[in-house]
């Protein structure tokens, strides 16, 4: 997660997608979620939505319902950006080969 806070949108997989696809009803949300798969800024996008309590649309591969559930489960989190950056770092670190 090395993208500057203001420029992550430029690298988003959905940047050229019709916005209506990302604010779709529940019947088409799974198709829209496929756009997020493999997106290089998925975590930044999700953090933006969670930190700013964005109520509508698909952000970081999560629907508004999924984000609300996550926020209810973790009301103690003050910075989702920080949580996701740490998780990303730990994930990368666990995948590195270990020295003998």
TrEMBL record:
GO BP terms in the entry: cell redox homeostasis; negative regulation of DNA-templated transcription
Post-translational modification (record): The Fe-S cluster can be nitrosylated by nitric oxide (NO).
Pfam families to which the protein is assigned, alphabetical: Whib
Annotated compartments: Cytoplasm
GO molecular function ontology, one term from the record: DNA binding
Keyword Iron on entry: yes
Cofactor(s) named in the record: [4Fe-4S] cluster
Gene Ontology CC: cytoplasm
Domain 4Fe-4S Wbl-type: 13-69
UniProt record similarity statement: Belongs to the WhiB family.
Protein role: Acts as a transcriptional regulator. Probably redox-responsive. The apo- but not holo-form probably binds DNA.
Protein name stated in the entry: Transcriptional regulator WhiB
Record lineage: Bacteria, Bacillati, Actinomycetota, Actinomycetes, Kitasatosporales
Gene transcribed to yield this protein: whiB
């Amino acid at each position: 997660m090395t993208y500057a806070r203001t420029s992550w949108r430029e690298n988003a997989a959905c940047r050229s997608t019709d916005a209506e696809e990302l604010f779709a009803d529940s019947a088409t949300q799974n198709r829209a979620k496929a756009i997020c798969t493999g997106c290089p800024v998925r975590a930044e996008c999700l953090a933006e939505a969670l930190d700013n309590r964005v109520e509508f649309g698909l952000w970081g591969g999560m629907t508004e319902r999924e984000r609300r559930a996550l926020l209810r489960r973790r009301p103690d989190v003050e910075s989702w950006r920080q949580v996701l950056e740490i998780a990303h770092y730990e994930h990368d670190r666990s995948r590195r080969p270990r020295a003998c």
